[in-house]
Write a structure and sequence with these properties.
heterodimer; A: 391 residues; alpha/beta; 6-stranded antiparallel β-sheet; 5-stranded parallel β-sheet; 15 strands; globular; B: 482 residues; mainly alpha; two-stranded antiparallel ribbon; 12 helices
């Protein structure tokens, strides 16, 4: 447990006392008096069942507190108390294990708000004790057979269970069996590679991009899954690394390897909903060779008007090694123009090293065009337009 | 997976009632569907059928994923048939059949009564869409426009819910009733809707907020009472409808609150200390508190009539039969049969108001109405908090239940809003003090200028504290295509 705890609160100024939350709560954590509807911190388990049916949004308040507010405190309120200043703890997950993983993935940029126009994510709907069960309906190798990189596209179908996700969110899985110390395995997070409405529109499934790692317990288990097998899924998680729901938004996506997963979701979402949007997508994607670049084939079929692609290879036979940051520098004027746009959103996903290289490239490009990268980065970051998820 | 959690999205009509296995009903609904779409295009929101509206669509009955938000053209909205999950082993919770297994089919002896109740409930749903169809032209913001349309499409879905019950359980009679539901028109001289308040005009947005606060709340109370029904399909239908109905309460509740907020804010900024200085307040382009009070008086009194006669044999029969219960029957602690119980009824006898005990079974309409009044009061209390916070000692209040009534115990008398009885002459002379008059209507109408810029609001209403689906302030809730 954290030393401080998260507390679920209802905003009495906005609540209309419709009783929907109290009727919905499966464990009786919500009650009311003549004044207010309140949540008992000692009972609420963050199952989130009450959040979506609330018509007002008053239900959706989460404070990080040293000492939870009592029911008496809450009954007496005419408005919420001031939110404690220290909310740097991740709001991406209400699950300590998932929160720690996401905090680590985001730690170089700290707490970044979600893009202003992003749809509202649902998080923590399923936990270890109560996971969603999904069936494997697809598992295909994305990389050429003769290469040593085995990256898989795995489709999980939720049948009739509602598992609402947004592009950029992650799910948690726990490999079956026990670790060597006899306790259950740790949770792993994987970015969702499909858009919110599924692999095809209106299918209740999602996909993952998983790379087989030598001796990796989770990755080998996932990559070996057969069609029809079931997987217990936790989450969804992630409330910040989300796609702007704004057709004017330009999105610069920088990734390596399986870091492409969320950007496949972003691209497909834009393609389905606004293929002729004013804002454009820009992808800088690094791999060793085309044969080892996940989704190489499908990428070739996307129109330039939707997505500009810079596919960069570090092991192309007969060519000089090229990394993502090299291509960024080569495209300096184009990136500089994007950096001057108020609608630009920057996303990075991949190995930790990617960020170092890309940061250096941004610094140089900005300087060459009379901009201060540190200040610009901070402005992007604080307005929810600069997101990094690395591991 | 509990029964009824499976949503089928294939085909024309999303549903969790296994429509594919019931060819007769599916065919009947598919035959009814074109008429419904025609009705929607004729009588639904005028001028916005091509616009993309950021709407909530119910996609399931599990609270975790029951609805999703996306841009939709209203005629393409997915009007599905969704019932709350069946409760295994549910028994009839009240009346003379209390404790027997809940009915999955219509009991022959109650067929006419049930059909009538379902038809009346069904008739109110399209009626309010018709009443509100011109409001889009004067919406104070895209946010409000979207909320109006959300209410409209969900009333449409509620019509579907009732029509499904009619087709599924009432054979030819049901089919005829379903056709009639599309044929009647709110306010029409020859073929009006069944209940009075649903034939009144909704001429402006304050009326709309008052209507959703007061009249939709009657709908909520009726649904709560029907959700208790021993006829299980009706109970499950109404339980799910209540989840959506909460949004309608919210639109009215927060709508009036935002009007009040803007008014006191403008008064304060202008240094006005007397809330009753109507001319000074109106000069600011906001709606003065006394006029808001008058609107409340009107809509509250019209809505009370919807509860019917205080003393009613029909209500007693419906309860005794196990068809229609009380508000939150499941939370009440008594014998749930009410054979020997009495309930105090306020009546006007020999020139004064007296409370008389009458058999509780006969007083069920009044009991539901009393629960309703209490529910209304909680909203009024919140509005008053806004006024109090701004430092004014003006308070809004519900008028006396005898005020301006056309049905029930008080239909033959006139009173002021405090319940003092007035002669006909006094009423004629003074009713403009209590109810909006032509000048009030003209003033409010003069404020009804549409605002269609993202994140902007008309001058007479405050912005909401949070957006729908947590959207930011300048979100484009409606992409208008004329």
């Amino acid at each position: 447990m954290n030393a401080v705890s998260k507390q679920h609160l209802i905003d009495p100024e906005i609540c209309i006392r419709c009783n929907t939350c109290e009727a919905t709560c499966p464990i009786g954590a919500i009650t009311h008096d003549a004044n207010n509807y309140v949540v008992d911190a000692s009972i609420c388990n963050f199952c989130m069942d009450c959040v979506s049916p609330c018509p007002t949004g008053s239900i959706d308040n989460w404070f990080v507190v040293n000492q939870p507010f009592s029911l008496e405190d809450q009954f007496s309120w005419l408005e919420l108390p001031p939110k404690p200043a220290e909310i740097a703890t991740s709001t991406d997950a209400l699950d300590d294990e998932a929160a720690a993983l996401l905090d680590d993935a985001h730690k170089t940029v700290g707490h970044v708000p979600a893009p202003a126009s992003a749809a509202k994510p649902r998080i923590n709907l399923f936990n270890r004790a109560n996971p969603a069960v999904a069936k494997v309906t697809g598992n295909l190798r994305l990389t050429a057979e003769h290469t040593e990189t085995d990256v898989r596209h795995i489709i999980l179908d939720f049948g009739t269970v509602a598992f609402p996700v947004l592009e950029g969110q992650s799910i948690g899985v726990v490999p079956p069996g026990l670790a060597t110390n006899g306790t259950p395995h740790a949770m792993r997070l994987y970015s969702i590679a499909s858009p919110r409405d599924g692999e095809r529109p209106n299918t209740n499934n999602l996909s993952l991009t998983v790379k087989r790692v030598e001796n990796g317990i989770a990755s080998n288990w996932l990559c070996d899954l057969k069609l029809g097998e079931t997987v217990q899924v936790i989450g969804p998680f992630g409330a910040t690394f989300l796609m702007p729901d704004d057709q004017d938004a330009d999105i610069l996506m920088i990734c390596t390897g399986t870091g492409a997963a969320p950007f496949r979701g972003f691209t497909e979402r834009r393609r389905r909903t606004a293929p002729h949007a004013r804002g454009k997508l820009h992808l800088y994607f690094g791999a060793r060779t085309p044969e080892e670049l996940p989704y190489f084939g499908p990428l070739q079929r996307l129109p330039k008007t939707l997505l500009t692609q810079e596919l960069v290879y570090s092991r192309l036979p007969g060519a000089q090694k090229e990394y993502v940051q090299d291509r960024m520098r080569a495209k300096g004027p184009e990136i500089a123009a994007l950096l001057q746009s108020e609608t630009l959103h920057v996303y990075m996903c991949g190995l930790k090293g990617l960020e170092t290289g890309a940061e250096a490239a941004f610094t140089d490009i900005a300087a060459a065009h009379g901009m201060d990268w540190a200040g610009l980065r901070e402005r992007l970051r604080s307005t929810g337009r600069y997101h990094v998820e690395t591991y | 997976m509990p029964d009824g959690m499976n949503i089928n999205y294939d085909g024309l009509i999303p549903n969790n009632v296994d429509l594919n296995a019931d060819l007769r009903v599916r065919k009947a609904l598919e035959t009814w569907h074109p008429g419904y779409i025609d009705w929607w295009k004729d009588m639904g929101p005028e001028g916005f059928q091509e616009s993309l509206v950021y709407l909530r669509t119910a996609i399931g009955v599990d609270p975790k994923g029951w609805a999703k938000f996306d841009y939709v053209k209203m005629p393409e909205y997915k009007w599905g048939i969704l019932l709350a999950p069946a409760v295994e082993g549910r028994t009839i919770p009240f009346g003379k059949h209390k404790g027997e297994p809940a009915w999955q089919e219509v009991p022959g002896e109650y067929r006419a009564m049930l059909r009538r109740l379902i038809t009346v409930q069904g008739d109110t749903e399209p009626a309010s869409v018709e009443q509100q169809r011109h409001l889009g032209a004067t919406a104070p913001s895209l946010y409000d426009l979207r909320n109006l349309f959300q209410v409209n499409v969900e009333e449409g879905r509620h019509l579907w819910a009732m029509v499904y019950l009619l087709h599924k359980y009432f054979g030819n009679d049901g089919r005829e009733e379903a056709e009639e539901l599309l044929a009647r028109r709110s306010g029409h001289k020859d073929t009006p809707r069944m209940l009075g308040a649903f034939n009144e005009a909704t001429p402006d947005w304050l009326s709309f907020f008052m209507f959703t606060f007061f009249t939709d709340r009657d709908g909520k109370m009726q649904l709560e009472a029907l959700a208790q029904s021993g006829f299980d399909p009706l109970s499950r239908t109404c339980r799910f409808m209540l989840t959506e109905e909460a949004h309608h309460m919210f639109v009215g509740d927060s709508g009036v609150q935002r009007v009040v907020e803007r008014t006191v804010e403008a008064m304060k900024a202008a240094g006005i200390t007397d809330p009753n200085d109507i001319a000074a307040v109106r000069a600011l382009g906001v709606i003065d508190l006394p006029t808001i009070q008058k609107k409340m008086n009107l809509h509250f009194s019209l809505t009370l009539d919807l509860f019917g006669n205080e003393i009613s044999t029909n209500a007693a029969n419906a309860f005794n039969a196990g068809i229609k219960g009380r508000y939150r029957e499941d939370k009440l602690e008594d014998d749930h049969s009410l054979i020997d119980a009495t309930y105090p009824v306020l009546r006007y006898v020999d020139g004064k108001f007296v409370e008389e005990p009458v058999p509780a079974l006969s007083a069920l309409n009044l009991r539901l109405r009393n629960d309703y009044v209490q529910d209304c009061n909680s909203g009024v209390t919140r509005w008053n908090r806004v006024i109090e916070k701004a430092g004014y000692d003006f308070r809004l209040a519900l008028p006396h239940v005898a005020f301006n009534r056309a049905i029930g115990e008080f239909s033959s008398i006139h009173t002021d809003i405090a319940g003092n009885v007035l002669s006909d002459a006094e009423w004629q002379a003074r009713k403009g003090e209590f109810l909006p008059d032509d000048a009030d209507a003209q003033y409010i109408t003069s404020l009804m200028v549409p605002v269609t810029e993202n994140g902007k609001y008309a001058g007479w209403i405050a912005a909401p504290k949070v957006g729908i689906d947590n959207k930011p302030g300048d979100f484009e809730y409606v992409q208008i295509v004329q």
